[in-house]
Amino acid sequence: MSSRPRNRALSVLPMNNPIQEYAWGSQQMLARFLGQEIPSPVPQAELWMGAHPKAPSQVWVNGEWRRLDQLINEQPHHLLGKNLGRIGPDLPFLLKVLAVDKPLSLQVHPNAKQAWAGFQREEAQAVPLQAPERKYKDPNPKPECICAMEPFWGLCGFRPPAEIIDWFSWLDSQALEEEIDILGRELGESQDVLAEMLDSLLSMKPRRRRRVLEQVEKRVARGAGQDMLDPAYWLGVLVREYPQDISVLAALFLQLVHLEPGQAAFLPPGQLHAYLYGMGLEIMANSDNVLRAGLTPKHVDIQELLWILSFDSQPAQILQPEPVEPGWSRYPLMTEEFALSVLELGSGCSELTLAGQGVQILLCTQGELLVSDEQMEESQHIGQGQSVCIPSCVPKWKISGQGRAYRAQTGI
Q1: 404 catalytically annotated
Q2: pLDDT at 22
């Protein structure tokens, strides 16, 4: 940051954001993005920008660093503005930069009704919030969107039953005949078939599970492919990371998603997914509710997972930013909790003036930019990896320079 601001009231607030260190993170990606020493001492997985109590950002206000969640509690109307009554006294979204060097867990998030019911049930049962078996940490839904900053790979949503049969047959494993028979039945809706198939896989007896995984390892050893567009390639990756986990078959029964930089995928509640590799910007509802199916040492609850899951065989929603005006494009997201747009400043557009529109977080991902609150006569320079929070009380602000920034704000 070029200089510390002279805040007389809430204006454009520089942010200091925490890094989450998980085993699946990278010692290269985030360190390179943030201009730190490479490699980092430990894997860095997520850069959090928001007010989640687990790891809130700090903002520079009146000569000191303050926790953003505490500042919102003290001045909710100034920070959240007109959205306060609709979203409550909390920042409704959380913005992250993900550095995925190893596959994440196979997981799903609840919708609003499911989250509320699950949270109330576990509260009534007095399950501690930090207990490993606790599934609902808050009563909020968790839609999310991942936007690729570098080529990004993931699994998202079920394949049609016929495609899964082809891939399971490719394994040449008699031990999977039960699941193949389920997928081939006429049960009416494909959702019913997929639900029964997944239940059968995840509930598989240990002896049969060992037989399936032995066959998977043999098939991978014969050649799982070197093309990252080939699901068999990712089956090999998952088998090496989780050799005892039947959930490695997700590489075959879920759809492979490849995002080029700037492309995004929206993951509604109920959609089974796993991130595989790459660096991306993730925006989500400010929730920590996760139901896991596998590819993790953490708690798995199969019956709760099946209750949460949607079994539609629909292609993942790949989103391109849609132009609003020169230098400003918006991703077509339809969610109450968040919206995402990208600002491109350069020779074609060197300056943009934008309305407040509620609380916002602005992250610079390339170049050098100047963010100005002309009413308060406050300006902040941000470079790659730096961010600012723009409170709702800032009615209008300007951005100029050369570079790219992503803007997170409340949704529809």
Answers
A1: no
A2: 93
Mean pLDDT, rounded, for 365-380:
90
| pLDDT value for 358 | 85
What's the CA gap between 191 and 120, in Å, rounded? 28
What DSSP character marks residue 24? T
Tokens 């920008």 label which residue?
Answer: 49
Which of the two residues, 196 and 412, has the higher pLDDT score? 196
Rounded Cα distance, 57 and 51, in Å? 6
Other beta carbons within 10 angstroms of residue 222's beta carbon come to 8
Distances (CA, A) of 366 to 36, 299, 319: 15, 38, 21
CA 83/CA 114 separation, integer angstroms: 24
Neighbours of 160 (CB within 10 A): 15
Other Cβ atoms closer than 10 A to 8: 10
Among the listed residues 262, 263, 215, the one whose alpha carbon sits nearest the alpha carbon of residue 239: 215
pTM above 0.85, yes or no: yes
Burial of 3 (0-12, 13-18, 19+ CB in 10 A): exposed
Q: Residues 292, 330, 404, 407: which is the catalytic one?
A: 292
Cis peptide before 297 (omega within 30 of 0): no
SS (H, E, C) 358-403: CCEEEEEEEEEEEEEECCCCEEEEEECCCEEEECCCCCEEEEEEEE
List, in order, residues 6 or more apart from 101 with CB less than 8 Å away.
24, 25, 26, 27, 28, 29, 43, 277
pLDDT tens-place string over residues 197-239: 999 999 999 999 999 999 999 999 887 678 899 999 999 999 9
pLDDT at 7 over 70: no
Distance between CA 283 and CA 277 in Å, rounded?
A: 17
The structure tokens 């997201």 sit at 333
- Residue position matching structure tokens 């919102």: 72
How far does Cα 301 stand from its chain's mean position?
Answer: 21
Evaluate if residue 5 carries a pLDDT over 60.
Answer: no
Structure-model confidence comparison of residues 257 and 10, the more confident one: 257
Q: What's the average model confidence in pLDDT over 125-143?
A: 90
Confidence class of residue 88 from pLDDT cuts 50, 70 and 90? low
Q: What is the pLDDT of residues 276-290, one digit of tens each?
A: 999 999 999 988 899
**Helices then strands, each counted (H, E), the chain:** 12, 22
357 pLDDT higher than 50:
yes
Strands 93-100 and 328-330: unpaired
